[in-house]
From TrEMBL:
Family matches, as Gene3D superfamilies: 1.20.1050.10, Glutaredoxin (3.40.30.10)
Superkingdom assignment: Eukaryota
Name of this protein: Glutathione S-transferase
GO biological process, alphabetically ordered: glutathione metabolic process
Ranges for domain GST N-terminal: 4-80
Domain GST C-terminal residues, every copy: 82-204
UniProt-listed Pfam families: GST_C_3, GST_N
Length: 204
């Protein structure tokens, strides 16, 4: 039975929950979008593992951002049609986690300004282009404009989301025409377009 009540809890930003929001928006599902100003001790005590984001489904609380996005995509038809499709999606999701972790390390977890600048330089000149090349090749191999099958899945949404995050920091995706086309396709989706248009700008 499909869940009746869905609540996402995170900070007031995109971060590690935005792809789950995009899944729900693309699927046309209503959900409660709780945005907390700070991670208080009281809130932390109510989490399974002492961290955000959280997903509450009919009163039961879950954590771990990838698990949340994967569940929602499966539940609402954005996870392909076969187990092999799921594997194809999972590999894209894992690639995105790698580049996200590199981004978090450079921008959020490095205090030394000289080291931070070097990490950002490497991210912009080497790491991000390397992952864009991976995505470009996967799109080329599938040949439909999507990563899996011939319709929107979690893989497309998560690559759009990470590309958006890096573009906001001055990175580019030009030179990767299939990635550019996918980005435009997701952004112009009839449900996602109005959502993105009204989304409050946040640094992360």
């Amino acid at each position: 039975m499909a869940p009746q009540n869905i609540k996402l809890t995170y900070f007031n930003g995109r971060g590690r929950i935005e792809v789950s929001r995009l899944v729900l928006v693309a699927a046309g599902k209503e959900f409660e979008d709780v945005r907390v100003p700070e991670f208080t001790a009281d809130l932390k005590a109510k989490t399974p593992f002492g961290q955000l984001p959280l997903l509450e489904v009919d009163g039961e609380v879950f954590a771990q951002s990838v698990a949340i996005a994967t569940y929602l995509a499966r539940e609402f038809g954005l996870y392909g049609k076969t187990n092999l499709d799921g594997l194809r999606i999972d590999q894209v999701v894992q690639l995105v986690q790698e580049i996200l972790n590199a981004g978090y390390k450079a921008y959020l977890f490095t205090a030394d300004e000289t080291q931070k600048a070097q990490l950002i330089k490497e991210l912009k000149e080497k790491e991000f282009p390397r992952y864009l090349e991976y995505f470009e090749n996967l799109l080329k191999n599938n040949g439909t404009g999507y990563f899996v099958g011939d319709s929107l899945t979690l893989a497309d949404l998560i690559v759009y989301d990470v590309a958006f995050a890096f573009i906001q920091r001055g990175f580019g995706i030009s030179g990767y025409p299939l990635v550019e086309a996918l980005y435009s396709s997701v952004e112009s989706h009839p449900r996602i377009k109005p959502y993105v248009a009204q989304r409050q700008p946040t640094p992360n």
